[in-house]
Amino acid sequence: MKGRSLLMIPGPTEFEPDVLAATGAPTVSHLAPSFVEAFAGALAAMRQVWLSPSGQPFVVAGSGTFAMELAVASLVEPGDRAVVASTGVFGDRYADLLARHGAEVRVVHAPVGEAVDLEQLEDAVRSTSARLFTVTHVDTSTGVRTPVSELGAIARRRGAICVVDGVCSVAGEEIRQDSWGLDVVLTASQKAIGVPPGLALLVAGPRAIERFEARRTPVRSYYGDWGKWLPVLRGYESGAPGYFGTPAINLVAALAVSLQRIVSEGMDARFRRHEILAGAFQAGVEALGLPQVPARPEWRAHTLSACHLPGGVSLSEFVRAVGESGVVIAGGLHPDLRDRTFRVGHMGSVRAGDVLATLGAVEAGLRAVGRPARPGAGVEAASRFLASVAVPSTLGAR
Ligand code: PMP
Questions:
Q1: The whole model's pTM is what?
Q2: Mutate to test the pocket of ligand 1, among 84, 86, 90 (most ligand atoms within 8 A of CB)
Q3: What is the H or E stretch that residue 228 is in?
């Protein structure tokens, strides 16, 4: 029996051996030419992955929550009005965070399982004269994806800066930062980017940098002040590294490796692979009789799935039983759904075999908790889906 399980939670995900090898390589000086080259390569590759040739990438040690803070701490000033579009836990977190930075926050809540209504969002931005608004692209607590391609247009119409929390979407879901006019798109290393937890990542577009440069008051966060990081990041890219805080050297080296893999897969192929594998998994759970949390098929994320358990089933028993088949999945996260739903991540290096194995394990889990489905129903539906859409090379892409 294998000594390790397949990790199918919505982050951290499974990481490639060459990425892990980079984290375990001897640590060099942050000024070593090999590190300067790796850091510069990572920053350049971020522009390709975010599809943002005009953007300024930031890489700072921290988790996704810090990426959220890094995105707004340098943009909001005390008393600024901000609108948060919330589809669940992470939108609510953004509202809290913005208030800490002195913003007056209006939250536009979507009902659980629904995407944010963009007209309602624009209305709130207009009626509050908000200077900034945030949207969670994929809400990891509900598996709902809110469309973000129109946000740049809303931001321009309303004179606001738009911030996309892409922690559960960047490098998995389609995002075209420049052509969609998204001002800030943030994520963290441990999800579809494919690097162990520890890096906050974002790309800021020209309007965001201009907004920062026009501030009237000092940034309240010291570590999250773009003014501290910009000269250092620009220095690394021009071959003249500087210092503000010690970079997470091994994680940045691993980031350079993982981003190169992503760039060589190609963004369109990568978006398509995630779409196909999500479609296969979601067809599988449907065939197992498990309803999904997103209320409409077009709101189902491609990076994770959130599903309801049959009534009366204990979540912890089910998750444990799935684990006994060698697949680790997650329980619910949203307070309204916590004990009644489970979540499966299918992003980053995921392949068709991983999705099929997970459906087999979910089926075994249902059997173990006394709610058996027809043997093979989930795997069969997913296989049919794959056969109907996929080109074989897409399925194995790593
Ligand atoms: N935003 C979203 C959409 C997330 O899914 C998460 C983490 N699951 C975060 C923010 C926070 O990231 P972290 O846990 O790395 O702080």
A1: 0.97
A2: 90
A3: helix 226-237
Question: Quick one: CA torsion of 360, 364, 370, 375, rounded to 10 degrees?
Answer: 50
3-state secondary structure at position 59? strand
**In a domain? residue 1:** no
Nearest atom in ligand 1 to the alpha carbon of residue 10 is 8
The finding on whether 56 has its CB within 6 A of some atom of ligand 1 is no
Residue-number span of the structural domain to which 368 is assigned: 6-11+266-395
Q: Hunting for tokens 């294998």 — which residue is that?
A: 2
Distance 238 CA to ligand 1 centre (A): 31
Q: What is the pLDDT of residues 257-311, one digit of tens each?
A: 999 999 999 999 999 999 999 999 999 999 999 999 999 999 999 999 999 999 9
In a shared domain, residues 327 and 380: yes
| Residues 231 and 342 grouped into a single domain | no
- Residue range 136-158, pLDDT digits in tens: 999 999 999 999 999 999 999 99
Helix, strand, coil percentages, rounded to 5, for the chain: 45, 15, 40
Which CATH number does the domain housing residue 201 bear? 3.40.640.10
Q: Name the 3-class secondary structure at 302.
A: coil
Question: Is 256 a member of any domain?
Answer: yes
In ligand 1, the atom with minimum distance to the C-alpha of 166 is 3
Residue type (1 letter), 208: A
Q: Does residue 137 sit in the same domain as residue 99?
A: yes
140 ligand 1 Cβ < 6 A:
yes
**Which ligand 1 atom is nearest residue 137's CA?**
3
Q: Are residues 122 and 249 in the same domain?
A: yes
69 with 195, same domain: the answer is: yes
- Please tell me if the CB atom of residue 63 comes closer than 6 angstroms to any atom of ligand 1: yes
Q: How many structural domains is the chain composed of? A: 2
